[in-house]
Automatic annotation (TrEMBL):
Pro residues: bias regions: 24-40
Source organism of the structure: Guillardia theta (strain CCMP2712)
A UniProt-annotated Pfam family: MORN
Domain of life, per lineage: Eukaryota
Protein name according to UniProt: Uncharacterized protein
Renumbered residue ranges of the record's region Disordered: 1-43
Keywords recorded for this protein, A-Z: Repeat
Amino acid sequence: MGCFSSCLRGKKSAKGTVIEPEEAPPPPPPPPQSETPPSPAHEAWTVQDGARYDGAFKAGRRHGYGKFTWANGDTYEGDWLDDVQEGIGKFCTPQGDKYEGGFRHNVKHGKGKQMWANGDSYEGDWAHGLQHGQGTFTWGENSGMNASNVYTGDWKEGVREGRGTLTWANGSTYTGSWKNDHRHGHGLLVLANGDKYEGMFDNDKKHGHGRFQWGDGPWKGHAYDGEWVSDVMEGKGSYITSMRK
């Protein structure tokens, strides 16, 4: 079976993944009328560049279920409507990228799962070829500092935006607001060592009003409640030297 992915590539950084669209090669038009398949409706044809289609036709156009193979080895297998990929299908590349799910007008749309050759994956909502709605992105073991991190939450036009939870491989978590793929707005950060911060973030940094409580070491139980500027306690605030549960 073939597979289909609207080929997105991820730019990796320590702060997250910015996912940009990469156009999948559109399927070539059907062959000239003189080459259209005769009855029965299921047939195969090969165009000059070596691409091949095996599947259903209607009125000389791909319609129904079929498999298209590009000359570069990419394949799409699934539903066609009036010569475009429409419905449920699979796409894969020789490099190992795979997508299975919904399509509209030749791009990913609806529910679907994308798997990249490096082990990264995304499962959730798509719109017009981009992650949009609710979904989960898991970084693979070959993703450097992001390896095995998991984000579940809102997406908008290919980036994390809205509300979501990022879980790092070491057990630290962030739950809160996101904007343009960064922690932005109100959120709760819980580190693996027990430290906690709840308050405002700006571009991944503690910024604005927030409360930080130490959960380990000589300052365990101490807390700071006040203003922050770019991850630094700065401005008006209160320092609590001991807290009892």
